[in-house]
Amino acid sequence: MLPKHISRHKAIFENQYLGLYHVRADVGDISRDYYVASYGSRVGILVFRHGKVLLTRQYRLLIDDYSLEIPGGRMEEGELPEEAAVRECLEETGIFCSGLKHLVTYHPGLDNMYNPTHVFFADDSEDVDESRYLESGEVAGYQWMDFEKCVDMLASGEIRDMLTILAIYTYLHRGGTAGNGPANSRQP
Hints:
CATH architecture of the largest domain: Alpha-Beta Complex
Number of helices: 4
Number of strands: 14
């Protein structure tokens, strides 16, 4: 049964990175309180060049280690997902991507987290400005890694970032290989 009434969200906490909200849903005779963490929309992009995948290296506090990940991040106000993916890749690596193809859009949590995530792949890229990405301090570097090695690193647990894991497995599931994109992707 769908809720008969859903209250407006009440802000508990907000800053530029996170909003925490309270929402009440009335379903028949039962009321349920939800506490929703909103991180906004984000994007990721799986970039191929000559059978290799572009991965960034970033420090991640919760594992207290560096992580290999596809480029990605938060969408800015008024930005289309495709534009955000291109911007994030350029900001993190100095590499400009074009001809993006949609892989998947997903929601990491359906009850208590708002963070819709749009994932694309591209096999058309060019080096534009490699020096800019290091100046931001956001990434410790990037590398082009053989696609089959990436797949092996998923299985071994060496790649631990869920955005990267989901992007590569979705790409594989849809028939993508190191040299060819999946046949059933759609243009943005």
